[in-house]
Amino acid sequence: MTEPVVRVPRRDAERIRRQLADTDSLAHDRRILEEDGWVYLPVRPGIDRSLLPGEPIDRALPSMEPPPVRDYRELLAGWSADDRALLPRSYDVIGEIALIRLPPGLAARGAEVGEALRRFVPGVRRVGADYGVHGPARRRRVEPLAGSGPWRTRYRENGIEFEVDVEQAYFSPRLAREHARVAGRVRPGERVYDLCCGVGPFAMTIARDGRAAAITAVDSNPAAIALLRASRARYPWAERIEPREASVERFSESAPPVERVILNLPHEGIKYVPRVATLVTSGGELQYYEVVDRGTADRRPAELVATLAGSGRWSVRERHVVHPYSPGADLIAFTLVREEA
Ligand SMILES: C[S@@+](CC[C@H](N)C(=O)[O-])C[C@H]1O[C@@H](n2cnc3c(N)ncnc32)[C@H](O)[C@@H]1O
After folding, report:
1. For a pocket test of ligand 1, which of 170, 196, 287 has the largest count of ligand atoms closer than 8 A to its C-beta?
2. Sign of torsion, CA 242 248 254 255?
């Protein structure tokens, strides 16, 4: 398609380009072209040609590429910059599902936000508003915003594909490094209990690494155990995992002690710690997780050791922040060791 253009010799091109820009006559949707010593400057349609510098002609020029979209919020047409700024920059992507924490004031416009995210993130089929995890099963409350299909998806973490249902069973994409770190501590021949295993990322990562002799993965949410069974069925090396639908209380009544126990129930796990400590052999480790207020973090290791005193001598071998949990608290990983008798 031809559109108005001014043709000028190359030596005059910059002077005339500025003149056109100063009079708001330059078109910004087509590229400036240089050819055989001439420069072609695109001008806006409807401009009075008699007032233009240079030689006005009609010809086709390549169109400008739109700038790449770098943030899903740029896709929210008609939103003010202030409203956009209220939206979080980050969101979680779990397989084909994207989850975003919507500020309360913008819940009514959630469908537009969902649609923007669905278009922006490659491979996303459905977008939900994330209202956090609740109740003993730590299930996530999710409201649909855009897209369709089930909340169940596959998610690749540390090279393993997990069956995940973002609504039916706990899963967080923010624990990947922790799953790999704990798996890395496992010594050849260890027996492992993964208590409160969710869909089993600790158990699966440990099984894949291949050093553990046996792994029992325990959770009281039947949906979590069903998802773990589905992931496990796809990998021959996962056979050494025994998934168990049971509460920590019931499981710990009859389970023999093993070299490594993981207890990842960060808000309530402390009430099981004395009982779970009896499941760790002498010299074994308890990987324990807790949300800790920053103000009390320094004294927490000593408090934990005191809580464990009923079952042998314990020390804290290592602790670190897994991620911030709230403005005043962190999720902390503790590696507690039952000292040799
Ligand atoms: C924070 S999630 C753990 C997730 C998992 N370890 C991971 O890394 O993804 C806590 C899990 O504990 C389970 N749970 C809560 N109370 C329990 C109990 N008393 N006995 C067994 N499982 C429990 C919940 O169903 C939930 O799956």
Report:
1. 196
2. positive
For the domain made up of 156-338, give the CATH fold: Rossmann fold (3.40.50)
Name the closest-CA residue to atom 1, ligand 1.
Answer: 265
Q: How far is the CA of 267 from the centre of ligand 1 (A)?
A: 10
What CATH class is the domain 3-59? alpha beta
Q: Give the pLDDT of residue 18.
A: 93
C-alpha span between 312 and 75 (Å, rounded) = 59
Q: Is 264 in the pocket of ligand 1 (CB under 6 A)?
A: yes
Q: Is the pLDDT of residue 333 over 80?
A: yes
Q: What pLDDT is recorded for position 221?
A: 98
Mean pLDDT of 96-124: 95
Could you tell me the distance, in angstroms and rounded to a whole number, from the CA of residue 244 to the centre of ligand 1?
Answer: 12
Tens digits of per-residue pLDDT, 173-222? 999 999 999 999 999 999 999 999 999 999 999 999 999 999 999 999 99
CATH architecture entry for 72-149 = 2-Layer Sandwich (3.30)
Residue 151 beta carbon below 6 angstroms from any ligand 1 atom: no
* Cα-based torsion angle of the residue sequence 261, 169, 94, 319 in order, rounded to the nearest 10 degrees: -30
- Ligand 1 contacts CB of residue 228 (under 6 A): no
* Residue 136 Cα to ligand 1 middle (Å): 8
Q: Indicate if ligand 1 lies below 6 Å from the C-beta of 171.
A: yes
- Give me the helix-helix angle, 201-209 and 176-185, nearest 10°: 40
**Does the pLDDT value for residue 5 go beyond 80?**
yes
Say whether 77 sits in a helix, a strand or coil: coil
Average the pLDDT over 307-324 and give the result: 94
Q: What residue spans define the domains of the chain?
A: 3-59, 72-149, 156-338
Distance CA 203, CA 195 (A): 10
